Amino acid sequence: MADSTGSHAPRSPFRAWQAFLWSMKGLRATWDVESSFRLEVYLFVVLAPLALWLGADGVERAILIGSMVGVLVIEVLNSAVEAVVDRWGPEHHELAGRAKDMGSAAVFLADMNVLICWGLILGPRYLN
Q1: Domain residues of the chain, as ranges?
Q2: How far apart are CA 107 and CA 113, in angstroms?
Q3: 26-65, pLDDT tens digit by residue?
Q4: Is 60 assigned a ligand-binding role in the annotation?
Q5: Distance between CA atoms of 78 and 18, rounded to whole angstroms?
Q6: Cα separation of 49 and 68, whole Å?
Q7: What is the pLDDT of residue 91?
Q8: pLDDT for 82-107, tens place per residue?
Q9: Model confidence at 5, in pLDDT bands (50, 70, 90)?
Q10: Which residues are substrate-binding (predicted)?
Q11: Is 53 known as a binding-site position?
Q12: CA angle 52, 73, 10 (to 5 degrees)
């Protein structure tokens, strides 16, 4: 519902479609400029069917696939942080470096989460 200032568009199928298009534009931009995102998508395309096959039930499949989707989400957010920091200026600033390092750390932690989830679910089954 629009407020008296008109700052919010009314909820409508058109608004939902526009939000979808903006999301696709963001994914495309991430794909175009981030080689790590492309690699993670390639890994997802290979590992998601494997997760569907190896997961014993819906919960295991959701954890295996969901952990990989989490990496993609965090990589998009990290790319957004980097774009904003780079837009601010090319000179080195301690806070800018810290923001980029923190974004990288978030991706690293998401990657570790994938390894832990896959290891805890599939490790006992296939190592025994």
Answers
A1: 27-127
A2: 10
A3: 999 999 999 999 999 999 999 999 999 999 999 999 999 9
A4: no
A5: 23
A6: 12
A7: 81
A8: 999 988 777 888 999 999 999 999 99
A9: low
A10: 28-31, 61, 75, 104
A11: no
A12: 110
Instruction: Identify the CA nearest to 74 among candidates 43, 42, 49, 40.
Output: 40
Sign of CA dihedral 48, 20, 107, 35: positive
* Residue 75 annotated as catalytic: yes
pLDDT of residue 117: 98
98 is in an annotated binding site: no
Residue 101's H or E segment, with its range, is: helix 94-127
Q: Is 8 among the annotated ligand-binding positions?
A: no
The two three-digit tokens of residue 11, written as one number: 């909820």
Determine whether 121 is exposed, middle or buried from the number of CB atoms within 10 Å of its CB (0-12, 13-18, 19+): buried
Q: Is 94 annotated as a binding residue?
A: no
Architecture of the domain defined by 27-127: Orthogonal Bundle (1.10)
- Smallest CA-to-CA distance from 110 within 82, 60, 61, 76 is with 76
65 vs 12: CA distance, rounded Å: 31
Cα end-to-end distance, the chain, whole Å:
58
Residue whose tokens read 């570790």: 112
User: Which tokens go with 38?
Assistant: 């492309």
